[in-house]
Design a protein that fits this description.
This protein has about 230 residues and is mainly alpha-helical. It has one domain. The protein contains eight helices and no strands. Helix 1 packs antiparallel against helix 8, helix 5 packs antiparallel against helix 6 and helix 6 runs parallel beside helix 8. The protein is globular.
Length: about 230
Amino acid sequence: MEKQTNNGKKIAAILCGYALFGLIAWAVTSGASAGFDEAVRAFILSLRTSVLNAFFVPFAYSGNWFVVVPICLVLLILPRTRWAYGIPVSASVAVAQIFYNVLKRVFCRERPDWALHLVKEHGFSFPSGHSITSCMLFAMLAILILYNHRRKGRSLPIYKNTPHPTKAYFRSRKAAFFCAWLCFLYILLMGFARVYVGVHWPTDVLASWCLAVSNLTWLTWLFLKR
């Protein structure tokens, strides 16, 4: 009975995330989000300073393929991290790539005023590829860090027929939680950075996070059976 209840909560969380994405997508296509987007974007752009530019411009680039791909490759190549981290994280990134590449071509939303861009970007705006990719990569990594800490490196449930335990886990609870919080901080900063550098509307980022939460829920269900 408890298992059925938990499964019901997971399904509800998945559907809720997709529904919120649909609501934002409707607001974007109907123009209902224009006032919100303009107001929030104007406020964020008003925060620009030479110091913040020096931080957020390179930071905004850190969500590009030349950072994401090496992270996945390192986790996959190293035997200690391949099964416990590499495969789940790479699967999350692959799902993110599929979702945002398809949806950008569905909605074809133009990016904000090109004159205010601090970085070079091309293609459509909605949803934010950097936001969904960074969210799914680092949130999955944070989840795995905490999971492997609690389980002391025991094999993930998805590998029950051929267990693959790992020694790559934090023995210290404080260290595990600190690294997990750093992952979530990175996600928030990336979402902010994509608006700050002028290449996305706020709703692009919010919609991406909604998708990421739903996708992470079923991916976590798949890999961790929880």
